[in-house]
Design a protein that fits this description.
Bound molecules: flavin-adenine dinucleotide
Distance between the termini: 12 Å
Number of domains: 2
Strand order of the largest sheet: 1-2
Shape: elongated
Strand content: 5-15%
Radius of gyration: 20 Å
Largest sheet: 2 strands, antiparallel
Oligomer: single chain
Helix content: 40-55%
Order of helices and strands: EEHHEEHHHH
Number of helices: 6
Length: 168
Amino acid sequence: MLNGYDDRTDIGFGFRTDAEIAYDYRDRSQQQRLIQQRCGDLGWKVPAMLASVAGDDDFYFDRINQIRMPCWSRGRVVLVGDAGYCVSPLAGLGGSMAIIGAGRLAAALERYPDDHASAFRHYEDELRPFVEQIQQRAADEGMSTMCPADEAELAARDREIAAGHMGW
Ligand SMILES: Cc1cc2nc3c(=O)[nH]c(=O)nc-3n(C[C@H](O)[C@H](O)[C@H](O)COP(=O)(O)OP(=O)(O)OC[C@H]3O[C@@H](n4cnc5c(N)ncnc54)[C@H](O)[C@@H]3O)c2cc1C
């Protein structure tokens, strides 16, 4: 993926595996080798993109994760955003969810100014169904859109985009 802006271009590589792969999250060279192994023999602009990645000090590598906590608060500690309910980059909404969550928490604390336990419960009761809906959509549609499993899923995705059914 190439995301062009006025003064820079973000380069993104993604690949999908049948099972979780082991890697050292502090070892950038190992992570870059993994990308090279997966994408090295692709054509198009990929060799130039890989060359850029090799010299990039802003390199970032991770699994696609979601956080699904059974409860968002304990005592006086409460979670907002990715810490409580990361929806993953596949949702394209994580930043929005963090801002919405902060707003909802502030509103709940305003509603129950002397009772943080009720405020935290209200915040979670109100927001959790929406979060779960976004997470499920990311796991289903987001995954098949951003990381199609096979050629058939890729072709189906491209047909949807060509028909204007997706905002990607
Ligand atoms: C590749 C990628 C693409 C994405 N694209 C989009 C997109 O297009 N649209 C969108 O809305 N969202 C997107 N997201 C998701 C979005 O970035 C996150 O959901 C959002 O940043 C979550 O905000 P947050 O404040 O909850 O957490 P964060 O932004 O992770 O903020 C947490 C902060 O806490 C700091 N921190 C951690 N531990 C400690 C500590 N012990 N002490 C002090 N500070 C600490 C961290 O350094 C960080 O600054 C994307 C994410 C990724 C990874």
